[in-house]
Amino acid sequence: MSEATPFGIYLHIPYCKAKCRYCDFYSAPGARGVPQSYVDALLRELAKNTRRPDTLYFGGGTPALLVPTQAAALIEAANPLPGAEITLEANPDVVTPETLRGFRAAGVTRISFGVQSADDAQLRRLGRTHTAAGAAQALAWAREAGFPEICGDIMLALPEYTNAEFDRTLALLRDGGCTHISAYLLKVEPGTAFYRNPPAGLPDGDAAADFYLYAVQQLEAAGYRQYEISNFARPGHEGRHNLLYWNCSDYWGVGPAAHSCVGNVRRFWPDDVQGFIAGTVAEQREGDCTSEDYLLMQLRLVSGLNIPAYERRGGRFTAAQCVFMRQCVGHGYAVWDGEVFRLTPAGMVVQNAILEELM
Ligand code: SF4
């Protein structure tokens, strides 16, 4: 593994104020803060690392439940390179002007808010604990705190969804000064409250695809350029950390359920927060990062799959797959100049079906 290879560290904060009805992330609800014993366990693991990261990402869970002094200690222990991107995920109702100023002073460069919708009835249905007005307020505080990068998440194809709900949510994020927007289709995952008790009015697959294509069009019109299936940014404001994942670069995840890929070897931590705190569980090897992983990740990006790079990783398309790829181009699902094969927004909607043929 070369030191010149970009390297990112992900710190998982598995605590939330309440459990959202659609969420299958590893997190414990009911938290008012992050136990110091958990922060100490992260510090213990970070002390084993000697490689300075280009990016540091606090994900969750709800990392904004950390107090700024805890975040500062973790940033210091991670020892990021000068100019590193340091992201912290937040929910609008767990921040105050003081905590946001504290996170900024601790070195956080990028604050990412789970806004999801500008419709209060929708937010209640999702089990979110903030309101649209609260989200606008949090974005204003983030601007005042001086974050160079402010990000907002939108969920698409929610129950009883309309393009007007999307427009209101986009306006909230745009007017709030977001430099980056992630727009995700709702997926009802096993183990969630929505899976056990599906909400009424869920759009079908065709309607969800139409909501996605509408969102891509409106985000582009508002100056947010798509660079990944679900990610859009003002030019120059793309998220550097997640690009490490999609480019199969090195990243080390720390905390229960966190995943890593370093030197093409994938590892994960068991989802056992008490074992992590006690130091009785260790990272497990998951397997190697293969050419198929590279294909899967690169086709998420608007920049697409560079076929010579894919071949250098041991991948090769069969003659039948090449015929299929030309058919994708013919149907408007892809663009292929002989060297780079990339999906159009219409192709991204059917990405899973395309991947089935190519893998
Ligand atoms: S969606 Fe975010 S805030 Fe809601 S339970 Fe999941 S991790 Fe916590």
**CATH hierarchy class name of the largest domain:** Alpha Beta
Multimerization state: single chain
Q: Number of domains in the coordinates?
A: 2
What's the SSE pattern? Answer: EHEHEHEHHEHEHHEEHEEEHEHEHHEEHH
The termini sit apart by 27 Å
What class do helices, strands and sheet pairing give?
Answer: alpha/beta
Question: Percent helix among the residues?
Answer: 25-40%
Radius of gyration: 20 Å
Q: Give the names of the bound compounds.
A: iron/sulfur cluster
Q: Would you identify the CATH architecture of the largest domain?
A: Alpha-Beta Barrel
| Low-pLDDT residue spans | none
- CATH H-level superfamily title of the largest domain: Aldolase class I
CATH fold title of the largest domain: TIM Barrel
**How would a textbook summarize the main sheet?**
9 strands, mixed
Beta-strand portion reads 15-25%
Number of strands: 15
Mean pLDDT metric: 96
Side-by-side strand order of the widest sheet: 7-8-6-5-4-3-2-1-9
Global shape: globular
What is the helix tally? 15
Family: Belongs to the anaerobic coproporphyrinogen-III oxidase family. HemW subfamily.
GO molecular function: 4 iron, 4 sulfur cluster binding; coproporphyrinogen oxidase activity; metal ion binding
Subcellular location: Cytoplasm
Main location: cytoplasm
